[in-house]
């Protein structure tokens, strides 16, 4: 589960995704190494990261006048979506001082609050810094080291893949002149409607400022695509969750029904709930956390394997496996301790049994299940890393009883040890604004090649 409205961003008084490329601030992409592995070893390539355009300062192409301030559009620059896209430029970013993003090439630190900015979201760029790196993980594994020791209740340090356009939509939409170099084109399975520009058009129509977040709002359009949440976690809880959609690639939704808003949640393009494997939710309360089997007080390695039915790189995806490595020890994923749900990996059978045991709506199976996630990888998916707090649901779905007023004796309700009143963004940002996650040692390769 990934909240669409929770990523609050402040950048020079604006949190926007624009389409023209500005020149008032130099854009320099921090380096980030990715190693590609085989049974013979790993070879590093020199990639970089780019900040999502939703966090960037956006201004009039002819001046420094904001196109969007607080959570309101400038009506003279943005009278309609097309004119706004033509009038507004997204500019370069000062990654460290404004956004708390620090990279030394092999490790990336994301800090929750830096000055007025809250949260961040970055993508992996290829060596030429013009296009996102695309991944097909069928019959492969993805590994990384992570330090969540400074990640309390209510904060999420996420690493995941989404089916974005390789160039951020630049070649397809004529009003997008910024592209992947400036972090455009985001989409996920929540069909986020807080994205300011979607498919080269400003999300001005129906724009409603948020009542809880002074820097965000929602428009009538959302940006949907398949999403593979490899890692959503803090030091209390973690979940691995595929979310699938009934459309290929990045798709704009234009109504409550297609975006899956409110009572239409299960009618939308994408499966917003996903099929999650959270060890605590699956009944293993001693597996993950400070001092537990996977000890979140220190760094560890996370490995996610994508198994195909015929053991080839082009076969149908049938299973998603998780293992960990810490202090030299390989640790298999916890096994479900929920009655009627067996195993420790994500398969269609596991998902169906889990939905039944938790009395959850099964919108995962109806959109194609695990095989649909494999189909998305066959088209290529983009790596995303982020840190955020949750204005929509206080992150309770990850680390606490959810819903907050649900009967905690019922299977699947409790997802971690955080309190039902935890995770309120104002409190999190005040008390834990220095929360941070460190991602490092990114690797992709053949099964069992990245961690031994």
Automatic annotation (TrEMBL):
Organism superkingdom: Eukaryota
Family matches, as Pfam families: Glyco_hydro_7
Keyword field contains Hydrolase: yes
Any single GO BP term: cellulose catabolic process
Keyword Nucleus: no
InterPro entries, per database record: ConA-like_dom_sf, Glyco_hydro_7, Glyco_hydro_7_sf
Enzyme class: hydrolase
EC number: 3.2.1.-
Residues spanning the signal sequence: 1-18
Record keywords: Carbohydrate metabolism, Cellulose degradation, Glycosidase, Hydrolase, Polysaccharide degradation, Signal
Protein name from the UniProt record: Glucanase
Record organism: Salinomyces thailandicus
């Amino acid at each position: 589960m990934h909240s669409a409205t929770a990523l609050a961003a402040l950048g020079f008084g604006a949190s926007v995704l624009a389409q023209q490329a500005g020149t008032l601030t130099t854009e320099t992409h921090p380096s980030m190494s990715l190693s590609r592995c085989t049974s013979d070893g790993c070879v590093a390539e020199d990639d970089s990261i780019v900040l999502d355009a939703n966090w960037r300062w956006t201004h009039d192409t002819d001046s420094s006048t904001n196109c969007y301030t607080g959570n309101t559009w400038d009506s003279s620059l943005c009278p309609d979506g097309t004119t706004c896209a033509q009038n507004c430029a997204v500019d370069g970013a000062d990654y460290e001082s404004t956004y708390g993003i620090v990279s030394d090439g092999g490790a990336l630190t994301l800090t929750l609050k830096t000055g007025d900015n809250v949260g961040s979201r970055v993508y992996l760029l290829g060596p030429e810094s013009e296009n996102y790196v695309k991944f097909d993980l069928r019959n492969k594994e993805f590994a990384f080291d992570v330090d969540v020791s400074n990640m309390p209740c209510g904060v999420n340090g996420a690493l995941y893949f989404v089916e974005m356009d390789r160039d951020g939509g630049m070649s397809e939409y004529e009003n997008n002149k910024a592209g992947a170099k400036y972090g455009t084109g985001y989409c996920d399975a929540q069909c986020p409607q807080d994205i300011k520009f979607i498919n080269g058009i400003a999300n001005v129509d129906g724009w409603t400022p948020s009542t809880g977040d002074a820097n965000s709002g929602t428009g009538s359009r959302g940006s949907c695509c398949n999403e593979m949440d490899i890692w959503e976690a803090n030091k209390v809880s973690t979940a691995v969750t595929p979310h699938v959609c009934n459309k290929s690639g990045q798709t704009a939704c234009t109504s409550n029904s297609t975006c899956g808003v409110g009572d239409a949640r299960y009618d939308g393009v994408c499966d917003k709930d996903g099929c999650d494997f959270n060890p605590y939710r699956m009944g293993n309360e001693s597996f993950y956390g400070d001092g537990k089997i996977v000890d979140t007080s220190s760094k560890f390695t996370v490995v996610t394997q994508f198994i195909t039915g015929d053991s080839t790189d082009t076969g149908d995806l049938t299973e998603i496996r998780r293992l960990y490595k810490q202090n030299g020890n390989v640790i298999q994923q916890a096994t479900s301790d929920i009655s009627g749900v067996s195993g420790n990996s994500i398969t269609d059978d596991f998902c169906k049994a889990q939905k039944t045991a938790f009395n959850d709506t099964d919108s995962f199976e109806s959109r194609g299940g695990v095989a649909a996630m494999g189909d998305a990888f066959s088209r290529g998916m983009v790596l995303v890393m982020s840190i955020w707090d949750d204005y929509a649901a206080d992150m309770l779905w990850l680390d606490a009883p959810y819903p907050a007023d649900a009967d905690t004796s019922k299977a699947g309700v409790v997802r971690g040890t955080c309190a039902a009143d935890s995770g309120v963004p104002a409190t999190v940002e005040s008390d834990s604004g220095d929360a941070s996650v460190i991602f490092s040692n990114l690797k992709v390769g053949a099964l069992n090649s990245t961690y031994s």
